[in-house]
Structures are given as C-alpha cells and as structure tokens.
Sequence to fold (632 residues):
Amino acid sequence: MIKRHTTLIMAAIFVSIVAFAFLNLLLGTVRIPASDVFNIILGRGCSNEIWENIIVKSRLPQALTAIFAGAGLSVAGLLMQTVFRNPLAGPSVLGISSGASLGVAFVILMSGIMGQALSQLGFFGEFAVTIAAIIGAMGVMGIIIFVSQKVKGNVTLLIIGVMIGHIATAIIGVLKFFSVEEDIRAYVIWGLGSFAKVSGGQMVLFCTIMAVLIPLSMLLIKTLNLLLLGDGYARNLGLNIKRARFYVILAAGVLVAIVTAYCGPISFIGLAVPHLCRGIFQTSDHRILMPATVLAGASLALICNLIARMPGFEGVLPVNSVTALIGAPVVVSVLFRKRKNEIGE
Amino acid sequence: MKLENRDMESTVVIRDLTIGYRKHWRKEEGSRSKIVAGNINASIRQGELTCLLGANGVGKSTLLKTLSGFLEKLGGEIMIMGKELGSYTPKELSTTMGVVLTDKCDVRNMSARDIIGMGRSPYTSFWGTLSRDDYRIVDESIAMIGIEHLSGRMVHTLSDGERQKVMIAKALAQQTPIIILDEPTAFLDFPSKVEIMQLLHKLTREAGKTIFLSTHDMELALQIADKIWIMEKKKGCAIGTAEELAQNGVLKPFFNRSGDDFNYEKGLLKMMELKRLSDAADNLLRI
Fold:
C-alpha cells in the first residue's frame, strides 16, 4: 500500500520535471510557439533559424544544467544531513562552497592585480574560473576529510567545517579590498549563481560528470541507512564508520564542487529538498529518499530557473535569490506539517 | 577473582584485562593512557544472564565498550567464542555480538519493523534490501519480544520502554550468540524494568543467548541474573551468583551503608519480597 503510494508520487515528480523542462524551453523573452519548440527538440527543425538557436544553444543547455545541478546539490544535501545527523547541514555548511568561492575569487580578483582583467580573457577565463572553483572546493574538502578521520564527534567536525568557511570568506574579503572594481563586479555576479553560464561543450561535460556521479552516490544507500541509527549501532552492524564518513563526505564534496564550479554557489536547494522529500514520503529510508531527492531537486531547480527567467524578471532576479525565496517557505511549511502530524499521532 | 575452568561453555573469556582510554593525539607518548580498571579475569557463559553492577564512574561503560569492540583494550585478552576480539573483522563481529545502547537513536519517520530490519544488515545484499527470509526472521524476533502491536508504529512515537524492546528485537534479528546491553533498564518505571529483565532472562533460556548487561537495579539483578559481576574501584571485579556474593559478604556494603547488620538483613528481605512480586508479575504476563 505504502509502496504504491511512493511510486505514484515519484512518477508525479518525474512528470513535473518533464513539464517544467518544457516550460523552461517555451518561456522566455522571445516568444516561440509551443509547436515549434516541439519540432525543434524532436530534431525536425524549424523555419525560424533564430528560434532554433535560442532553444538549442540557450534554453536547452540551461534546462539540462538546472536538472543536473538541482539533482546533484539535493543529493549532496541529503548525504550531509545524514552523515552529520543534523537537519541544518547542507552543501554550504562544510565550507566546500566557500572553498570554491575562494578559488574563483583568487582567479578573478588576482588576475586584476596581475594587470589583466579576466573579462578580457574570454573562454580561457571561463575555463580558469571553473578549474579554480574545483581546486578550491576540493582543497577544503581534503582538509575536512582529513579532519573527519581524526576527530570523533560529528558536531566538532561540523564546527570545524563552518570555521573553514569563515576563513575562506575572510580571505575573499581581503582579496576584494585589493582588487579592481570591474573584477569585484565579475566576482559578485558569479556569486549570484546561474544555470545559464554553462554552454556548449562545457554543458555536455558537466552533464556527463553529473550523470556519472549521482548514480555513484546511490551506492552509499545502505551505509547511509546504517548511519541513521547512530555511530554505535552502525558500527555494531559491521559498518566501518571512518570509511563510511570518508566516502559520504567525498561524494557530497565532489558533487558540490562540480556544481559550484559550473553554476556558482547555488544556495538552499541542497538544504530544502531533503526536508521536502522526508515530508512528502514520510520516511527516512534512503532507498526511497535518494531517488526522491534526485527527482525533486531537478524539478525544484527547473522551477527556480523558470521564475528567475520570467518575463520582466530577466536579468533582475538571480537564481540564488529565487532558490532562497522558494526554498525557505517550503522548509518551514514542511516542518509545520510535520509538527501537526505528530500531535495527531 | 578465580578463573573458571569451563571454557567450553564460556562464550566470552577475559584474562588480565586492563581497560581505559588511550590518549589519541599523542601517540609518541603511548604510555599516557588513562587506566579505568585492571586485572579483570572472568568469563561469561552461554545461556546465562550476567549482570554488571557498580557505582557510577567505576568503569562499567568502559568495560562494556571494550567488550563490544568500540574501545581498544589496554592490556590482557578478550576471547569471544574462542577467538581474540581484536582479530574479528567488523563483519564477523556484527554476526557474533549484538549491542543495545543507552543513547536514544533519534530516527524519525521509520517504523519499528524497519529498525528491527536493520538488524539484518550484516546479512543483506549491497542495497540492504530484506529478503523473504530476512522478513521471517524479523517477524520471529518481533513475536519473541511480544511487540507485534508496535511493529507498525514510528519509532519516535514510542515510549522509552517500548523503544528499548524494539532495540532488543533488533539485536535478536541480528542473530548473534552474544547480546550486550548498556543499562537497558535505565529511565524505565519499575514494572517495565521487571518486564525487560524477564524478557532477557527468557531469551537466555529459550534462544540460548549469552546476555551481558550493566544496570543500577541491584535488587532486580540479584533476583533474575544467573551471574553477577560487581565492579568496585579498589577491590576490582567480584563475580558469582547472588547467593555466593551474599555469603561472601560482597553485597554487604551495598545494603549496609550505616554499618549495622540489621539493614543488611532488611535489604535481603526486601530483595526476597521483590522476587515474589516479580514472580507474580511474571505469572500475570503469562496469562
């Protein structure tokens, strides 16, 4: 009975992804009729070459990026919340996204100091930003993993992560002080987050990496379920806690690093979606939660992207603001509903 | 502190065990570890309920943690089913020894049956999906503890006593010959304490489990346990049946704080009375 219920909701979320993806292709500043959008994505071509270009080169990559980024961040959030047994944990908590920001800040802001504005570097500049974000995120993740093997308590580890985040932010502040105004603006815009920055070959690379990483993190399902019971019980049931922590933080860290590198720091999706799924599916079982967060994360990212791109908002609303504006009420409403259920029981 | 020579039946044998904590951050100064208790020689026999008593801070938890492999021993040897504890792989250990801990596991949105099913994880496949056999074992464990009515409830809605039973059922589903429990009767009201202890006693008899637990409920332990270990800071660990310990006078200080014999007699009397009470409760439960 419950099983059928679960499959049904999953199917519904999947349908919503398809629907929102189509809306993402359909809506935008340039009006394109639905029939033409269909023809273009089915490869049948279209009379208007500009329309085809808009769909294939701009809206389609953006939708795909949103799907994979949303799914990846949500899974990362779920991994973090389970391994730290803390509902407030999310991709940004361990300082991994701050690490990415630090890397990007170095490249964008230092290049100005070196005498060449990054904005003049074109494609090479974009590539450098991506690499810098990955290096920064992985660096912080390396430290966190190292510490996670040394300290016992989860809370200690969490606090250390938050502290590393603060240090990164502080260094960024110092870098900003010494840089040129244009570069600071470039950095701020990167920090607003966007699914639109990934284009062409980079998009294919991003989606391929995510399409490999997300299923890989599914391999941790049994480990995560055991971690739910607490370290003592998990250990007694044969789980190597240190190794489990290593793999879970590694998986979450790599996901966050890649997404942040390509889309900038996207806040809130990673925190909100796992809560949303626990609320909807009424379970903590990762065999259900993992696929659920993947689907719900993709769907929510598409919705956010859609709102950020609504006619009139274009270029005004950054994705990051939308994710927070939508994410926060979602989390709050789920928490309220949960409370009511508990009283009911 | 004499070593029993019936190792054949003994599932756990401890020789010259020293327990305590290693200072992790300074490996080079290895000798700077905190010794909690030393020179423990004992054995726990199969099909018996063994209770560990002692004041707070005397090292009960440390001993329990060391025996269940959470903490490294500082010296001596621990033989589990004839094999040194240290040479067990985590996987082997998970099918040899089940634990029930004091820390509440605060899982939300999981049914009692799901939690008990987690006890099967050493046996399940990569994804942790339970087979029909696993479900059968889970249901048997539920039936043995008598918590069929709880199996569908969410764990976070259960009372402390109910949750304790669920975790014991988890340990049963784990199908380990040895079960170690850390203060399973703490936080419970008296009838629930009696119920849990009798349940554990039943498991030693009907399922042949070796059960070792720590508790502060001295009277209850003296009535129900097959063997009592009493840990004391200075005298170390005294082991025996309730009668043996009473005759040796080991129990005296526990009942006789003011130093007059009358209280000691009264304490034993009270104990006997409680024994009758718990027998009555037992009969009631059987009906």
User: Anything to note?
Assistant: The domain at 2-344 of chain A is CATH 1.10.3470.10 (ABC transporter involved in vitamin B12 uptake, BtuC). The interface with chain B takes residues 85, 219, 221-222, 225-226, 228-230, 232-233, 235-240, 278, 282-285, 287, 342, 345 of chain A (CB under 8 Å).
